[in-house]
Amino acid sequence: MISLLYGLTLVLLPLYLWASGLPQIGHLVGVFWMAVTFLTARRFPWDKAFNYLVIFILYALIVDSFVFLKYLDYHTILSPIYYLYNFAFMYALILTARRMGNFRFFKYTTYLFLLLLVAQFLLNFSGLGRADGGYRAMGTFNDPNQFAHWVLWSVLIVAGGSFYIFRSLLLAWIGLGLGVVLLILSTSRSGLLGMSWVFLSLMLIPIEASLRAVVKGRVHFNLAKLMVKVIPVALLLVFSTGAIVHFFPGIQATISSHADFYVTRIAKGIQKSKENLEERGYDRLWKFPEYTVLGAGEGANYRWQERTTFLDEIHSTLAGLVFSYGIVGSFAFLGFIYHLWKRLPLFWLRLFLIAPFLYGLGTYNLRNTMFWLGLGFFWILADALRYETTFKALNREVLKTK
């Protein structure tokens, strides 16, 4: 029952049926999954790192309640409710993993996200997916950046799950390939920052392996081993890509046209320079510096109209966090991220955590449930890897240096 509700929640989360900012059908199904999970749980394990998130949510509730009472903007009071929901979602994920068992949980979740990536791929190329302005793909979402955020976390989850299940990153590269194509279709610049970092993190693994081989005097053996493993995969990707382009020339044309448009968007963004900061609300940090201490809360953005022209929410996770919840809120949330960072036993897995924050340089993604789902997934992954094998054994397996 829990597995079914959990899987249904993951499948429906990308489906946006009404306006963004309101709970979607996936969130509503998630309520039933969480309720069953909490009611049937025998134990409720608690880590001190979760206290940081509790402090963050309580502080957000206090700040946003004051702002709501003054300005009566319902968006303000919804924010802490979303944070509470997302924390409950993350904790239910941890309980579900314990209930299912690590191997079954990672296999179930990894394959499901890989299938969802394929489904979004087919949906967009079939012309059934949504498109902003009739061009920028957004799949089943309301916005290309929402779509890119989901794609980014999906690739990270497939990569982490692939390593746990197979001690291999083949699925990670397949997921990355799908993710890059979907990202090109969305032409999301925020997504580009995050996905580029994922690529660099994956590339770090063979580089680190080569360095270790040099140090241990096993250069020839490791290079031969690397060639045996990498070359067939590379050839497979090249021939499969060539076959797709040959039999489906429309796909090549679509990717090519979107890539050109992508480059143009990036070039225009670079030309704007400091204008980008004002267009995303960064200027509130220095035009209203007093709010960076205790926080301005969210919503009621017309408050800033006298000194700034951008009246939407700040399009940055870190800048929005600092401005909306000040020192206390920022310290509390980032305190949890720091504990999660330390908990992950492999450096390249830690690097994965940076990707969503790089995405967040251009978009605020802290209220998005997918962000908290991803954090919960990597918390479970950290525990599973730490307690099932040693750090040295992990390095030997992933770097192939034994």
Describe this structure in words.
Helices cover about 75% and strands about 0% of the residues. It is an all-alpha fold and about 400 residues long. It has one domain. The longest helix has 29 residues, at about 220-245. The protein is globular. The protein starts with a helix and ends with a helix.
Throw out a few tags for this protein.
single chain, 402 residues, mainly alpha, two-stranded antiparallel ribbon, 18 helices, 2% strand, globular
Per-chain topology:
Layout: H1 2-12, H2 25-40, H3 50-71, H4 74-100, H5 102-125, E1 130-132, E2 136-139, H6 144-166, H7 170-186, H8 189-216, H9 219-247, H10 249-272, H11 275-279, H12 284-287, H13 291-294, H14 317-343, H15 347-352, H16 354-359, H17 369-388, H18 391-399
The structure class reads mainly alpha
The biggest sheet amounts to: 2 strands, antiparallel
- N-to-C terminal Cα separation, in Å? 42 Å
Order of helices and strands: HHHHHEEHHHHHHHHHHHHH
The unreliable regions are none
How big is the Rg? 22 Å
Give the mean pLDDT. Answer: 86
Topology, number of strands:
2
Strand sequence of the main sheet, in spatial order? 1-2
Strand fraction band?
A: under 5%
Which outline best applies? globular
Total domains, how many?
A: 1
Helix proportion: over 70%
Number of helical segments with 4 or more residues = 18
Short description:
This protein is mostly helical and 402 residues long.
